[in-house]
Structure formats: C-alpha cells, structure tokens
Design a protein that fits this description.
Helix content: 25-40%
CATH architecture of the largest domain: 3-Layer(aba) Sandwich
Largest sheet: 6 strands, mixed
Number of strands: 17
Strand order of the largest sheet: 6-7-8-3-9-10
Number of helices: 15
Distance between the termini: 15 Å
Shape: globular
Number of domains: 2
CATH superfamily of the largest domain: P-loop containing nucleotide triphosphate hydrolases
Strand content: 15-25%
Structural class: alpha/beta
CATH topology of the largest domain: Rossmann fold
C-alpha cells in the first residue's frame, strides 16, 4: 500500500526562537522539563508516522497530547519548528505561500469541530466556497456542490440557511464542502465531538458509508477511543506531544504497551472489535483423495476437522478420532453434514450466537473457501483477554 502522507521527526515549539528547546528535546528532555527551563510550550516532540493511501487514520490522546497541533501543522496553520511533512513525497514544510495555497485548495481539505460555516450564505454557497477561491466557474462549482450535497443526503436543503439546519446537518455541510474540492486527503479535527451522542453515531456511520465509496485518505483527530476503534484502520496515540503507540485497533487492544494506552482499552467491547479471522486456528491438509480433502489442525493437535471438495468448500465436519483414523488408513471418512461457517470478517458478537459446545465453526473467505476453524473456547478467550504490556507495533 502506498503512503499518501509521511511525517518525519516533526517538532513544534510555540516560540519564535525554538533552537534551544529543540536541542533539549533531541537530548531526551521532556515537554515539562523544557517548559520549566525555558518557559516555552512544546506541542510536538519528534513525531514520525506514515498514513497509507485510502486509510482512515486516527490520531488520539487526552487534552494537551498534541493531536490537534499535529493536524494544524500538517496544513501549516501552525508552522512546524523542525521535521518533514511529505504529501505524496513532496515536503509541505518547504512550500512558499503560493505552493501552500495550492495544497490547501486542491490536495488537503479540513473539517473542523465547530462547522465553520458562513452564517449569511446558503448551504450550497458554503459548499461552493472552496471552489470559488480556486477560481472555478459559477456553473461548474454549482454543479459540483449539488453533486456532493446529494452524496451526503442534503440535496433538498441546498438553498436553506445554516441556522435552519440541525447540528448534524451542519456538520454534513462542512463535510460536503471538504469533499467538493475533490482533495485526496481530508483532515478531520474533532469533527464529531460537538454533536449529541445519537447524531454523532449517525455521522460516524455516514462517514464509513462515504469512505467505502470515495476511498479518501482521512486523518481523523479524536479523544474518544471508541470512535477511533469504530472508524480507524490504524490508530496513533499521543501523550505529551509524543507518539506513544501506533498500530491496528486490534493490536493496540491486545498489546497496549503502557498503562497510559491500556487505560483507553479497558472498556472496549472486544466481541464487537475482533472478528473470526483474528481468532481462528489455521488448518492443514491431513489426507487428500478422489472424494475431497481432509483438513485438520496445523499444529497436529487432536481436534475437529473438515472435509472439503476440490474447490476447498466445506462438505462436512469430522471428529478428532476420524482424523487419526484417516492419517493411518489414508481413507477419507464420511463427514457430518451439520456444520456452520462464517466469513473471516464476521464480528465475534455475531459468531457467538452460532456456537455449540461440540461443534467447530468453519471460517471461510469471500469465495466460500475454508481458511480456518473456530471454537467456543477461542471466542471466550479473546473476549475476556487483557492486553499485555510490551507491545509489538503491528
């Protein structure tokens, strides 16, 4: 997967003379030590990360962790003190004013927490605003604005004023305005945090729906770990201006790596986070013959297996004893045709209701081919597991 955005050793010190603070930080001093010694506030301390093209990349942390400072440095609303910000391999930090305007108009769009709509302009005029700044003709920008308002479900509100809309609808207008520029990269800074819980959930679902269609690269800033888990393909967690953990949602919950990160994961509903593919046991061929292929546990341990046809679709299940007999005789047993299978991306909360104590569940890919086995004990172990300190970044 290609990298759309890459940040290398980024620092932000809120002062016109950051040299001494940077020297202290690069020598291992902390944000608080710099502030105590120099009276200067450190926003970012040696942050490096890569955002893959098409990712929903979440930046999260507590208040003051540096997450919003990072977002504002990326489009240079805040000027970085040191480091690189590479957008498609071009360093934004080296751009002059004209080059930066081009980036903001065409390549990066931003959605703010408090909508930032023009109150005296109609909805469609708000959506057109970025295109107007770019110099797009009135006819073209009106057509594009109507198109994106239809995408976010606000076509019939196009000629209303912002104050006539609910909070969730105004946030959709902000999202439509960002989409209208057709920028490949969106930065969403606490975009849903001002919304009521129900509206916030609806907006999260709407963003996921749009992302499946548009496949933008989205950098989403949040302080809500549940929101990060729901939306994110990868999560970066910040503290005191530093990046302290980065990885997939599942890897962070399983291996937080520190007490600070573990505190975010304690209330996570693991049954809704993990899927069948993350828990399943891989299987290997035990016996093959004219009647199909018998697959059992990759480790060789006793356990139920599956008889498959020539395309590796399930014909039925076999017991541990039947697997041993087949190993000795080379003959395929008659399978039990009462079986259950689920796709690898099925959440454990949905798998659990299909479990029985004496029957394994087959895990299949999108084409229906068997890729693993799942048992009730594995589901319970994953749902009840606690993350271990000493994380691997996955």
């Amino acid at each position: 997967m290609t990298e759309r955005l890459k940040i290398e050793h980024l620092y932000k010190v809120f002062t016109d003379r950051p040299a001494q603070a940077l020297t202290m930080l690069q020598a291992g001093k902390t944000k608080s030590e710099v502030q105590q010694a120099l009276g200067q506030v450190v926003g970012l301390d040696d942050v490096s990360l890569s955002v893959p093209s098409g990712a929903m990349y979440m930046i999260m942390g507590l208040s003051g962790s540096g997450k919003s400072t990072l977002a504002r440095c990326i489009n240079r609303l805040n000027e970085p003190s040191a480091g690189k910000i590479l957008l498609d391999d071009e360093d934004i930090c080296t751009l002059d004013e004209a080059g930066l305007r081009e980036v903001r108009r065409k390549r990066i769009s931003m959605v703010f927490q408090h909508f930032a709509l023009l109150p005296n302009r109609r909805v469609i005029e708000n959506v057109e605003f970025g295109l107007k700044l770019r110099g797009v003709s009135a006819k073209q920008r009106r057509a594009r604005a109507e198109e994106v308002l239809n995408v976010v479900g606000l076509a019939r509100w196009a000629y209303h004023m912002p104050h006539e809309l609910s909070g969730g609808m105004r946030q959709r207008v902000g999202l439509a305005r960002a989409l209208a520029t057709d920028a490949d990269t969106l930065i969403m800074d606490e975009a849903f945090s001002a919304l009521d819980p129900l509206i916030r959930t609806e907006m999260q679902d709407e963003l996921l729906r749009l992302q499946r269609t548009l496949n933008k690269t989205i950098l989403f800033i949040t302080h809500d770990f549940q929101e990060a888990l729901k939306l994110g393909t990868r999560i970066a967690i910040m503290s005191e201006g530093r990046l302290v953990r980065e990885g997939t949602p599942q890897s962070i919950v399983l291996e937080p790596g520190s007490d600070y990160v573990a505190a975010f994961t304690r209330e996570v509903d693991r049954a809704r986070l993990f899927d069948a593919g993350s828990v399943m046991t891989s299987l290997v061929t035990v016996v093959s013959g004219p009647g199909g292929v018998l697959k059992g546990d990759v480790s060789g341990r006793p356990g139920p297996g599956f008889l498959l046809d020539s395309e590796e679709r399930i014909l039925g299940t076999v017991t541990a004893a039947e697997i041993e007999q087949a190993r000795d005789s080379g003959l395929l047993p008659r399978p039990d045709t009462r079986f259950t299978c689920v796709r690898a991306d099925t959440r454990l909360v949905d798998v659990a209701g299909r479990c029985t104590t004496d029957q394994a569940i087959g895990v299949v890919d999108d084409a229906g081919r068997l890729i693993g086995r799942l048992e009730a004990g594995q589901i319970l172990a994953r749902i009840g597991a606690h993350g271990a300190v000493g994380a691997r970044h996955v």
